[in-house]
Amino acid sequence: MNVALFLKAALIGLSIAAPVGPVGLLCIQRTIAYGPRIGFASGLGAALADATYGAVGAFGLAAVTQYFVTLATPLAILGAVFLGWMGSTLLLAKPVADTGSATGSVMAGKAFISVFVLTLTNPMTILSFIAVFAAISGSAATAPSAAGIMVLGVFTGSACWWLLLACGVAVIRNRIGPRLMSAVNRIGGCILLLFAGWQLVRVIGG
């Protein structure tokens, strides 16, 4: 395996995941509320979505890229509505106790799927991957083996960031009581609603 290419792609995945945004906020809030397992599951949803769009860019699937780009506006609106729903839900949420393993597995699955869908509502990410992959490989359409390495690298880098974030937040989790958790939910819900409003304004403004 081309280790250098893998590490470059992993760095790309890490750099895309690291900036604080709605997904990072959800990962932090869910880690505090439900534990690092749920927080990490949320992050893995984003990592898989990044890898999905990264695959489109790495394999040079121009037709698929164009299809997603044409859907940019409706997907952005859908993402804003989804963010608004999650923000409202979080705003009204009450602190909860740790769940059992069975319930926790269901919650992890829901956390994973919700963030995967949310991240997929930003199809312009494909164009970013195409540009970056072209810079590190010399061509937007690379050999299948190299493309596979880059996609794996993106997923690994992104997943590593979410694991570090979930574990880091988990360190202070036990120090947060119900009152502070309620405040975290309210603040997080408001921020998600602001993100949703900002995305709608951006879409309406062209």
TrEMBL record:
<keyword id="KW-0472">Membrane</keyword>
<feature type="transmembrane region" description="Helical">
    <location>
        <begin position="6"/>
        <end position="28"/>
    </location>
</feature>
<feature type="transmembrane region" description="Helical">
    <location>
        <begin position="148"/>
        <end position="171"/>
    </location>
</feature>
<keyword id="KW-0812">Transmembrane</keyword>
<protein>
    <submittedName>
        <fullName>Putative threonine efflux protein</fullName>
    </submittedName>
</protein>
<dbReference type="InterPro" id="IPR001123">
    <property type="entry name" value="LeuE-type"/>
</dbReference>
<feature type="transmembrane region" description="Helical">
    <location>
        <begin position="67"/>
        <end position="92"/>
    </location>
</feature>
<dbReference type="GO" id="GO:0005886">
    <property type="term" value="C:plasma membrane"/>
</dbReference>
<dbReference type="Pfam" id="PF01810">
    <property type="entry name" value="LysE"/>
</dbReference>
<feature type="transmembrane region" description="Helical">
    <location>
        <begin position="40"/>
        <end position="61"/>
    </location>
</feature>
<keyword id="KW-1003">Cell membrane</keyword>
<dbReference type="GO" id="GO:0015171">
    <property type="term" value="F:amino acid transmembrane transporter activity"/>
</dbReference>
<feature type="transmembrane region" description="Helical">
    <location>
        <begin position="183"/>
        <end position="201"/>
    </location>
</feature>
<keyword id="KW-1133">Transmembrane helix</keyword>
<feature type="transmembrane region" description="Helical">
    <location>
        <begin position="112"/>
        <end position="136"/>
    </location>
</feature>
